[in-house]
Amino acid sequence: MISGKTTLIAHLGYPTESFKAPMIYNPWFDRQGIDAVVMPMGVKAEDYAGVLASLFKLTNIRGALVTMPHKITTLSLVDEATPTAKIAGACNAILKRPDGTLLGDQFDGAGFVRGVQRKGRALEGARVLVSGSGGVGSAIAASLAAAGVAEMALYDTSTASSEALAGRLRAHYPGLKVGTGSNDPAGFDLIVNATPLGMKEGDPLPFDVERIAPSTFVGEVVMKSEYTPLLRAVREKGCAVQVGTDMLFEMIPAYLEFFGFGSATPEDLRAVATLAY
């Protein structure tokens, strides 16, 4: 029940129809007796800067979850950003501090990497391909680099985006071999779809599935369905996979700590979540 004492966490993005976070956070808040709510708020890109400034003038807001298409823009709208957010070039979390200033952080990459590692996949020394160099792709690439991968290929329909991400990675991880320009999945230990492909019916697959070996681990960020067309296709080949919501469950404990609500395990969160597709 929302009351006058409820603490608000905004969930900012557009469109909101595919948002899953409220169905995870809010049942957990109820179970823990925490008077807080995650509220979806649809904001188009052209309105975002103005809405964000006004939103954080509210007296009962603690922070915000940020998703597409605002993660990159958010980095320039907060008063301070963590090193992780700077490397990723994007923020997916905003905390309103006691003095009213806004701190931006980034948990997409950490959530994705923790999920892969919990499935028993070693990342140190691995060859990885990340398709999509926007907010989520940049964050995943940064966290994969921190996890010790040896080689990373980056692909984006915007060459400038993938080249910029490659430059940030090389600056922070000079020992990492980074390439750009191809989304050929052959020969990689891990491939990641960090693009919106799979959100809409009829979308093409982000990779040529015929070129993916059965030993390749395939990760997805799209959450419109649990098993996207990409994941269904590679599972038929015998590939191990990670669904988009796994990343979400793995990153939420870090979010809870960031917002000052304590912590939880992914198992705790799954036990009470009311996800629907």
Quick tags:
277 residues, globular, 19% strand, alpha/beta, six-stranded parallel beta sheet, six-stranded mixed beta sheet
Question: In terms of per-residue confidence, which ranges show pLDDT below 50 for 5 or more consecutive residues?
Answer: none
Question: Strand percentage, roughly?
Answer: 15-25%
Class derived from helix and strand content = alpha/beta
Oligomer classification: single chain
The gyration radius over C-alpha positions equals 18 Å
Widest sheet, order of strands: 2-1-3-5-6-4
The percent range for helix content is 25-40%
- Structural shape: globular
The helix/strand order is EHEHEHEHEEHEHEHEEEHEHH
Distance between the termini: 24 Å
- Biggest sheet descriptor: 6 strands, mixed
The count of helical stretches stands at 10
Mean pLDDT: 94
Q: How many beta-strand segments?
A: 12
Summarize, please.
The protein has 277 residues and is α/β, with parallel strands linked by helices.
